[in-house]
Write a structure and sequence with these properties.
The chain is of the alpha+beta class. It has one domain (about 50-195). It has helices at about 5-15, 20-75, 190-195, and strands spanning about 75-80, 85-90, 95-100, 110-115, 125-135, 145-155, 160-170, 175-180, 185-190. The N and C termini lie far apart (about 125 Å).
Length: about 200
């Protein structure tokens, strides 16, 4: 009897290529790597979005404090009517700051302008002459809002305007940037023009 396997075995052993085990192992590694990349992309995207929102929030807070300083430091008068604080801006208009849509990403600080009362003794609180966003919408991304708590305060002894709870609101209505707690969460602006009058 002739052994037929002997001539076939050397022919099979000399073939180049991958065995079934090697192929399955390579496929398993490919699937694992693909899964890791697929799961990592959303995590990386969320991390990037948070970093960008945080950076934009800090920039917006800085812009807001600069704008508020520029606006309030040149105030030439101030008056409280009821529980609302009005100030006379550098143009001689009576104004009031207010937060619209507080606590949301649509929040914004608006400057309301009022006509002067008869005799020019203060604002006519029933005659608003218009309002405008203190920070233009072009400076605020869609996912951020800007607000403060309560009313504008004025300390006549020190000629200081105080704004409490100035903050930038982000996605999920979370505070992304605010005035630090080390200063009590209060932003103060020296009223230079009022100080010079005294």
């Amino acid at each position: 009897m002739v052994d037929m396997t002997n001539p076939i075995r050397p022919a099979l052993d000399s073939q180049r290529g991958f065995s079934l085990t090697e192929m399955l192992l390579a496929l398993a590694l490919f699937v694992i790597l693909t899964g890791m990349v697929a799961m990592g992309i959303p995590v990386a995207t969320r991390t990037y979005t948070r970093a960008v929102d945080g950076s934009n929030a800090q920039t917006l807070l800085s812009t807001a404090t600069t704008t508020l300083r520029d606006e309030l430091s040149l105030a030439t008068g101030t008056m409280e009517v009821g529980d609302q604080r009005y100030y006379e801006d550098a143009l001689g208009q009576w104004c009031r700051l207010e937060t619209k849509d507080a606590g949301t990403t649509d929040a914004r600080i608006v400057k309301q302008v009022y006509k002067s009362a008869e005799g020019g003794s203060g604002p006519d609180t029933t005659a608003m002459d218009g309002e405008a966003d203190l920070i233009t919408a072009a400076a605020i991304t869609d996912s951020l809002g800007l607000s403060f708590e309560g009313e504008l305060e004025y300390d006549s002894a020190n000629d200081l305007f105080r704004i409490r709870g100035l903050q930038v609101i982000g996605p999920g209505d979370a505070s992304l940037a605010s005035i630090p707690d080390e200063v009590g969460g209060v932003y103060e602006v020296k009223a230079v023009m009022l100080e010079e009058r005294a």
